[in-house]
Amino acid sequence: MRTYEVMFISAPTTAEDELNKLTTQLDLVITDRGGKITKVDNWGRRKLAYRIRKYEEGIYTLLYIEGTGREIAEVERRLRVTDFVIRHLTVRTDEDLKRAEKMKAKRKTSLATRGTEGDFDLDEVMEEEEEMLD
After folding, report:
1. Class of domain 2-92
2. What are the extents of the domains in the chain?
3. 63 contacts 97 by C-beta, under 8 angstroms
């Protein structure tokens, strides 16, 4: 299964029930095609970095999706044709997570082979590197 993050920005004049209706429609589309939404983050109204379609603010929504990839094309199509969605972006995150886990394991083995020279704490170093990855 692949993991994706889909963020879309809605016009600030959009009602909350319209946003809820869109997220439930997207959920139905994704589940019909074999995927699932693992988490929905509503970031609320935020100032845009630059003006989009005469709007200076937007309502941000972030969806975390697990699926095969077939459902993403339909989700993007629906976001494109929805009038109140002013921007959307989809990012595949599973490859980045795999790469980070691989680097973490490699560092852990290389640090463990160094031995205990001086005041070296492997757990402390791992926590620091994990914070840097986040």
Report:
1. alpha beta
2. 2-92, 96-133
3. no
Angle CA(90)–CA(75)–CA(8) in degrees, nearest 5? 50
Residue 70 is which amino acid?
R
Q: What is the rounded CA–CA span in Å between residue 119 and residue 46? A: 46
Q: What pLDDT does 101 receive?
A: 78
What span, in angstroms and rounded, lies between the C-alpha atoms of 6 and 120?
A: 41
Using a CB cutoff of 8 Å and minimum separation of 24, what contacts does 45-50 make?
45/12, 48/9
Q: Tens digits of per-residue pLDDT, 48-106?
A: 999 999 999 999 999 999 988 889 999 999 999 999 999 999 999 887 777 777 788 87
